[in-house]
Design brief:
- The chain is mainly α and 163 residues long.
- The chain folds into 2 domains: 11-114, no CATH class; 132-163, no CATH class.
- Helices cover 42% and strands 5% of the residues.
- It has 6 helices and 4 strands; from the N terminus they run ααααααββββ.
- The strands form 2 sheets. Strands 1-4 form a two-stranded antiparallel ribbon.
- α2 packs across α3 (41-54).
- The longest helix has 15 residues, at 100-114.
- The termini are far apart.
């Protein structure tokens, strides 16, 4: 009898954290399987996250990675070939079209609860903006962009106004 050894590395920890954060439920809520795909977008997105967290191979090689990680015993039987780059692309397109801000807000709130994070002070830095190219200056009420500096002291070389 041949013994087959599979490397699991940190995959069980990643899966545990994803389950605690209810990531599959959130993905299913914001990227539902309305078209009845054979593999729900939530499952594809979770698989992609697990791949990104534990693998150094490109995402288009997720099929090869699945052959090494999914044994059908500790994991449910998965047909690795069904996680091809076309399916991943369609799923990412659907994620892009979803309400990602609300998804991130709910995920953040879930992480705060699950990990009992201190939230007396929350800092959301959205002050750095970069503009490239020329902008028409026809509207006198339009915001005027001027040369300035980022907080990290890099020169902002843009000079135009925002219409």
């Amino acid at each position: 009898m041949d013994t087959k050894i599979k490397s699991v590395e940190i995959l069980p920890l990643v899966k545990y954290d994803m389950e605690e954060l209810e990531l599959a439920r959130l993905f299913d809520k914001f990227v539902p399987n309305h078209n009845g795909a054979e593999i729900a977008p939530a499952q594809v997105l979770c698989m992609m996250i697990m791949h990104i967290m534990v693998s150094t191979t490109p995402l288009y090689r997720i099929e090869d990675w699945l052959h090494d990680y999914v044994d059908g015993v500790s994991e449910g039987r998965v047909e690795a070939g069904k996680y091809n780059d076309d399916r991943l692309e369609r799923t990412l397109d659907r994620l892009f079209a979803a309400e990602r801000n609300n998804l991130l807000a709910e995920l953040s709130a879930q992480a705060i609860v699950v990990h009992q994070l201190e939230t007396q002070t929350i800092h959301n830095d959205s002050t750095n903006m970069t503009f490239f190219g020329a902008y028409a200056c026809d509207d006198p009420k339009a915001a005027k962009m001027t040369r300035g500096y980022y907080k990290d002291h890099h020169l902002d070389a843009s000079r135009s106004c925002l219409a």
